[in-house]
Amino acid sequence: MSWLAAYRTATWAALPAVKLLLARRTRRGKEDPARRRERLGFAARPRSAGPLIWAHAASVGESLSLLPLIDRLLARLPTAEILVTSGTVTSAGLLAQRLPPRAFHQYVPIDHPGAVERFLDHWRPNLAIWVESELWPNLIAATSRRRVPMVLLNAKMSERAMRGWRRFPGLIRTLLGAFDLVLAQDETQAARLNRLGARSAVTVGDLKSSAAPLPADAAELAALTQAIGDRPVWLAAQTHDGEEAIVADAHRRIAAGRPGLLTLLAPRHPNRAPAIAALLAERGLTVARRSAAAPIEPATDLYLADTLGEMGLFYRLGGIVLVAGSLLAPGTIGGHNPIEPALLGAAILHGPDMVNCAANAAALDAAGGAWPVVGAAGIAEAVGALLDDPARRTAMGRAAEAAAAAEAGVVDRALERLEPLIAPLAAGTSHARA
């Protein structure tokens, strides 16, 4: 029996356990109870008669990176619709706000054969685009059996993931081989994907580099700018468990010589805010939570940005932005996207583990727009130096913005590669068969 057949059999048997897991995730706020049937493959809306492109992205960053491409695809295909699937409540909320007309969100079905077939029977996509590296075997295999053209876009494969997949060479070769086109973030990713079985993966760049600057509400920006006043300020963005303690230590070190320091802290998962606030309070720091509408007062040490969809606001306020997910042991998280704050002219700091965005981090480093740091002491040194030297901070921000803008052609290059698969949809024909 092949690994794929064994996986399919195992997932058939696992359905009761999976339903229990979904119920548990719902109680913890990680599933939307009103839309949980979508996770079992039941659609929440009818399929229109025109062409349908299905784009799957695991979570927030991957979902938002699709937005410029979605706009271009809809302009190219005026009768088409785009179904975007993801698996997190956070991504669903943000996509509801930002998807244009003729694009809509559904939750991705669990990777169970029954849920997958139900999903595909309803939606009958004409083209499937998967983003980055979330590879669900049943969903990929079932889509391939229906002869739906498939693209792996913005593809990446870390060294650690590659070692893991090498334990199942037949399975990963089958999965990657199902994609008609594999567009990798950089040459390193392309080489790894090709070694594992992709059909001639090629590099077009990181799709996140083509994103428009994140938006911000002008009134909220003005209000927070006034509340901060002339206080020295910096932002620790997209932090994970274990990183907030490092940020708290760094804050103390920086504040020792800079009265009035305000640290903005935006956790990757805002639902962790109560635990983060408790941790900071235990360290004697005064915390104001945005979700509670707490004001920034003179005694406030840290302002906890525990809301959704406001990163554009806080990137603009910070000026100096530490890109987190990069401070823990190598392989723990792998860093987050530095392009978003760079596009807004922030001076970028990042820790040593930026494997998820290695090419972007290297480009920013080389351009003088980023400063690699290690631990609380390294963060404090860099933030302190930039606060004390506004001209240096401004120069770093301009260098970061220029380096980010230089990658703006990724969507054009991706569309050029996608054109042979898009053209039949524009002509009214389709590769896909139900």
From TrEMBL:
Pfam families: Glycos_transf_N (PF04413)
Chain ranges of the 3-deoxy-D-manno-octulosonic-acid transferase N-terminal domain: 35-209
GO biological process, one term: lipopolysaccharide core region biosynthetic process
Domain of life: Bacteria
Keywords: Cell membrane, Lipopolysaccharide biosynthesis, Membrane, Transferase
Marked site (Transition state stabilizer) residue numbers: 132, 208
Enzyme class at the top of the EC tree: transferase
Annotated signal sequence range: none
Metabolic or biological pathway: Bacterial outer membrane biogenesis; LPS core biosynthesis
Residues annotated as the enzyme's active site: 62
Listed GO MF terms: Kdo transferase activity
Keyword hit for Cell membrane: yes
Catalytic activity field: lipid IVA (E. coli) + CMP-3-deoxy-beta-D-manno-octulosonate = alpha-Kdo-(2->6)-lipid IVA (E. coli) + CMP + H(+)
Gene Ontology cellular-component terms listed: plasma membrane
Coiled-coil blocks: none
UniProt xrefs under InterPro entries: Glycos_transf_N, Glycos_transf_N_sf, Kdotransferase
EC nos: 2.4.99.12
UniProt key word Membrane: yes
Listed name of the protein: 3-deoxy-D-manno-octulosonic acid transferase
Organism: Aliidongia dinghuensis
